[in-house]
Structures are given as C-alpha cells and as structure tokens.
C-alpha cells in the first residue's frame, strides 16, 4: 500500500471538484483529484454538455422555421456526431492533461474517508493508496439518480440520463418517467430527433419548482413538438413483452422501445465512510455544510450536489471557489470574509440561485419564485406580464414570452425573476446582477435598454410596477 500527501485532497473530479483543486493550486497549495470514472464528471459527459448539444441543432431549425421564407432541416446523425465531439468520445485524456497542467495530481480510483484527513483510494485492480491531506479533504462526488418504487422496474432494462444523452441511435418509441428538467429536456430532444415520446408525470404540472406560467408554456411546447404529455399520471407497474417495455397505467398499457427514468437525483455519499469521521447526513442524504462549505472539524468540506444546497453545476463551481478560498485563508491563519456576500460565504445559494431549462420555450430564473417567497413569509408584489416588445416581434413571427418579477415592496428591490420564451436564457444575467446587487428599482429606471431588443421588457416591468 503506497502513501502520498497533499495539502488538499478532492474526492470527485467533475467540474466542481476540478474547480476546488484548481483554485487551491492557484492559492499556492498542492492538490490531488481522486476520480473513479471520467475526469470532467457527469456534466461533461452525460448531462449538461451532451444534452444541450442534442437540443441545440433542432432548436436552431425550429427558430429558423418561425421566420417567413425560411425552410430548414437537419441531419440526425450529424446531431449525434456533434454531441459525441463535445464529450471527446467519452475520453477524458484532455481533462487529465488540463488537471496535470494546472498542477493537480490525478489519482484513479474510488475514494473513501479513513479517519481525519486521510483518504483511501481503491483502484479498479483493488490496489489501495492512502492519501493524507495536510489541510483539507473536499468531497465533490455529485449526485446519483433516484429510482422510483415501481413494480417490475427492476425486471426490465431502462435508461437513466446517461443513456439518454449518450444514445447512438434514436428509438422509435420512448417513454419518459418524470417531468422535471431532465425529463422535459430529453423528451423534447428525442421527439425532435424522431422518436414518438410519451412523458408521464405524477404531478399536475411539469417543472414544479418553476413559476406556474412557465410550467404551462413548457407543457404546451412539448405537446407542439409531438410529445404525448400525461400529467397527474403514475405507472402502476412495468413489464417486458419481447423487445418492448410495457407501461401499465390502470386500464391502459403504453408500449415503448426504451424507457427513460428521470425521477430526480440524490447526493452521492455511498461508500464514502462518513461515519469514520463522525459525519451524519441530512434528511435528503446530503452532507450538511456551513457557508464556507465546511462539514466537520477544520478540514472536511463538501461542495456541489453532495451537500444538497443548490444541485446545479454552476452553483457547485461557485461553492468550490468559496471553499478553496476558505481553505487557503484558514491555512494562512487569515480571518474569513464570511459576512453577507463575503468572499467566503455561499450567500447566492440562499438568495440568487440561477437556473435555465433548455426546452422550447426556454425557462430561466434567478432568486425567489412567487411561491417560494410567500412560503418564506415574505410580503411581495408580483409583476406578471407578457414579453411583447419590438425586439421580440422582430425575432420571430408569433414570438411569445412571459416575465414574472418578484419585488420586495418595502425596499423596492428585486427578489427574483423568471423568464419564459424562446432564447430567454440570455436575459437571465441582467436579472441576476439586479438580484445580487439589490439594485433599487428607481435606479433601474436609468439602465436604458437598447432598441430594438427583447431586453426592453425591463422597461415594461418597471412601468407595470409603478402603474
């Protein structure tokens, strides 16, 4: 058994872990990345990147067709090939070269805790390496799919998000369980690539954490794309008949060639041996952390999906920056800047989480939704209007969108904003700056939107609030 030591040992080398190691090295600390699969993690190979690659070309064609005089088509195989190019053919040698070039050591194998500041790395061949962290261990193991308790599901082959984004051919009939982000995006992608898609969701609306107006428009968009959307519908059981999978819905049976189970994810803490360092997880299985990402003692941190705070790649990378800065500060004996919006506090996880759903229409939001604000006991005013400005009319015939702005009327600052419409993801960062900066609405009057752009909707929001 060999032994090594580094200032910082990061378990999990997805984008979040890579960020933690990279910022630690930038701060003058030595760092090692421990990874059992591909460096770059879920986001690079099976989630954010390949899913958006599958969606992008069909979306560009759909957008083009909304302009008069344009005829456009796409080649399905070229879409699949472009997706594969973004994953480098599921080869992580480029990511390894980046990590080593950035000064981080790469240790292949599955990491588990073995006492304070000690990690055991078990390689595929069973060889074990003990790694000691002089300063900190950072857990960045992400999340894993949740499998619903559906009778017969364990007797059939089914897809998770990995199989849906890495498919090398399009199934004729695809069933999707779950109307969250993955379910909606993959239903749209595969429908546009030629599959006949049936999406089953037990709730009464897709994207249940979004504003209801957004959910309704996404549902309409899925139906327009040819998805057979079944809301308030559960699966009683699943069975196999020849090459087909049968979904039993009461008296009805739906036959599909492939079944995608997209019913959520949970923090990936299995096999970490957290008990060896006295750490227990929260009610959702998450590692509970403070604002700097610290989970236990002065040395164990958890960032990204595994801590359950804001399970999104960009929020995890944000947490990793904060944790690496805090590790470096504590190593140097410096006081943390952990007040509101301080460098060592993940305040955005509470106030300004951003998210985009790349459906058609897109949904983009930051901060609090109306329901979340009211659950928190906030007294709010809501501006809920159509996005109908010169810029949207010029973008496409029949362009339709909506904005919901949640305002604190006492301070007259924006607490949250949701946009739904074609291409609205690019509107989001302006709203994020307004929420994070707590920019008074009176000052936003002087942020003049250019004409003719869709951003003119900001002026309509302010006018509606004052009306």
UniProtKB/TrEMBL annotation:
InterPro entries: Class-I_Pyr_Nuc-Dis_Oxidored, FAD/NAD-bd_sf, FAD/NAD-binding_dom, FAD/NAD-linked_Rdtase_dimer_sf, Pyr_nuc-diS_OxRdtase, Pyr_nucl-diS_OxRdtase_dimer. Gene3D superfamilies: 3.30.390.30, FAD/NAD(P)-binding domain. Residues 6-317 form the FAD/NAD(P)-binding domain. Residues 354-458 form the Pyridine nucleotide-disulphide oxidoreductase dimerisation domain. Its EC number is 1.-.-.-. Pfam families: Pyr_redox_2, Pyr_redox_dim. It comes from the Bacteria. Keywords: FAD, Flavoprotein, NAD, Oxidoreductase. GO terms for molecular function: oxidoreductase activity. Its cofactor is FAD. Belongs to the class-I pyridine nucleotide-disulfide oxidoreductase family. This is NAD(P)/FAD-dependent oxidoreductase. It comes from Pseudonocardia spirodelae. The lineage of its organism: Bacteria, Bacillati, Actinomycetota, Actinomycetes, Pseudonocardiales.
